[in-house]
Amino acid sequence: MAISIDLTGKVALVTGSTRGIGLGIAQALASCGARVAVTGRDAAKAAAVAADLPGAQGFGCDVAVPAEVERLVGDVEKAFGSIDILVNNAGITRDNLMLRIKDDDWNAVIDANLRSAFVATRAASRGMMKRRWGRIINITSVVGLMGNKGQANYAASKAGMIGLTKSVAKELGSRNVLCNAIAPGFIATEMTDAMTPEAKAALTGSIPLERLGAVSDVAGAVAWLSSDLAAYVTGQVIVVDGGLAT
Ligand code: NAI
User: Fold this and answer.
1) What span, in angstroms and rounded, lies between the C-alpha atoms of 97 and 220?
2) What's this model's pTM, rounded to 2 decimal places?
């Protein structure tokens, strides 16, 4: 049996894909033949990133605003004809100890990370159900499985994405719309660049594979889940963390 990932003819919408993990996912899916909707808060930046990817187009959207997410899904469907693969990747942190988290910081993180994934899933799944083919992939975090000091809002949003994933998998499975989550550990991006060298060294000491993950480690898992190789996988959390949460 020959194995390859061919997403020719598929359209992928990746939220927050102008940098970091989202950009890596957009590049990976485009390299497999998918036409990718690159999205970011800044439409011009999204268009510039899309210009480097074959078949891609850029769209502006603040995912924390439900009406913008609904509009984005409509615009992408109009431009490409469908959305076959939805990757809910956009996310933020507003870290603080639980006792110091302000309501605004709680709401901002839940809105950007969790509500955005719900609204995008609700909007994009209608077409997927009609076409009897869809892949929804939610980028959560090991922190959603383990919790983390100083990240109660972020961990709650990521744990919420896991409950969303499993529920959507159960509701849409009969229409061949699969929904899975990927829980990265610590991946080298601008989000983790902010750490001090000492904090990074302490962290890598607790990772069995003794390194931070690369964006390609996560993007590869997304490409696999998007492909027919994962046609019998739904409702799962694929942990990509070098063994950290083991
Ligand atoms: P990043 O900060 O480099 O990228 C996040 C992207 O989301 C950015 O392009 C940002 O503009 C976009 N975004 C944030 N809020 C948005 C909004 N309201 N509207 C539109 N776009 C918005 O972070 P990174 O590391 O690439 O993270 C990507 C995803 O992976 C996030 O959901 C993050 O929580 C998750 N993750 C990252 C880990 C890491 O170690 N870097 C570990 C586990 C999960």
Assistant:
1) 33
2) 0.98
Using DSSP bridges, classify how beta strands 11-14 and 35-40 pair: parallel, antiparallel or unpaired: parallel
pLDDT band at 133 (very low <50, low <70, confident <90, very high): very high
Give the integer Cα–Cα distance in Å for 84 and 87: 10
CA distance 60 to 105: 23
* Residues acting as catalytic residues: 154
pLDDT for 196: 82
Position in ligand 1 atom list of the atom nearest CA 90: 7
Stretch (H or E) spanning 40: strand 35-40
Using an 8 Å Cβ cutoff, are 168 and 136 in contact? yes
**Nearest atom of ligand 1 to the alpha carbon of 184:** 43
Measuring from atom 32 of ligand 1, which residue has the nearest CA? 91
Burial of residue 198 (number of CB atoms within 10 Å: 0-12, 13-18, 19+) = exposed
Looking at residues 169-193, what average pLDDT do you find? 95
pLDDT of amino acid 142: 97
Q: Which residue has the tokens 């959305």?
A: 83
pLDDT, tens digit, 9 for 90 and up, residues 99-113: 999 999 999 999 999
Q: Confirm or reject: Cβ of 186 under 6 Å from ligand 1.
A: yes
Q: Is the pLDDT of residue 31 over 90?
A: yes
Give the confidence band of 77 by pLDDT, cuts at 50, 70, 90: very high
The tokens describing 229, both together, are 């190789």
Residue holding tokens 């409950």?
Answer: 163
C-beta 92 within 6 A of ligand 1: yes
Q: Rounded to the nearest whole angstrom, what is the distance from the C-alpha of residue 236 to the centroid of ligand 1?
A: 21
